[in-house]
Amino acid sequence: MRASFEQGIIFLTVAGEEQGLNGSKHFAQMAKQQGWKIEAALNNDIVGGDRNPWQDPRVVRVFSEGIPNAATDAEIKRIRGLGGESDSPSRELARYVASIGRTYDAGVKPLLIFRLDRFLRGGDHLSFNQQGFAAVRFTEFSEDYNHQHQNVRTENGIEYGDLAGFVNFDFVAHVARLNAATLASLASAPAPPTNVKILTKQLENDTTLTWEPSPGATSYEVVWRSTSAPDWEHVHTITSGTRAILQLSKDNEIFAVRAVDAAGHRSLPVVPEPER
Questions:
Q1: Which of 11, 89, 165, 260 could be joined to 134 by an S-S link, Cβ 3.0–4.6 Å?
Q2: Residues in CB range of 161: below 8 A, 6 or more apart
């Protein structure tokens, strides 16, 4: 069956990752210069499910940046002042992947890692982050470094090198399904709401949110969580208008707004900016 989507999907392979992210850097810079509206980039790197004793084929790690790489000094100051260190567009994309993993059985569950990448390491999603695009990295749970950056050889009974015999192809297929479900959901959904604001002109215990309408949206959802929670905990549906008043303190919660179409497809959530 052939599916059609409201948004476009690009499958991209890039070269020169080990030489300085050359391929992804070129593409992301080109996209930025030409004004492309890239809603999400999913980077799959080390997703072979290497067959080693420490591997967990039930999960795939999803890495995402906290404070955006492309943020200006003024934006970083505002993020820190509002406690938004865990609410970059990439972090919201990671939470979106997690929500897909809860509703669709891909055979593997996403394990969110709130870090740009593995410790002191990097990958091609960084190139998109540097241009201000939301991007995350999918990586197997436990890497075997004998099978990375190694010439193919056998020493002292140990096989070195990146060989097909070490790949768990069922795991690869499961990760591909999770990618496909995430892409299909995003491409089917209305665009995220724009100009999302949290009104702060008056000191009050209620929280008022406003936003611009999204083409194709038939309703909106306000989601929120406590400041110490890793994922969205609550949802409130708005069936008409682009304004919500909640009897909740903005001091104690993190809020976001997402668009929903008639079929129930949800956009990425957008965290509001303060408006005085």
A1: 89
A2: 147, 150, 151, 152, 153
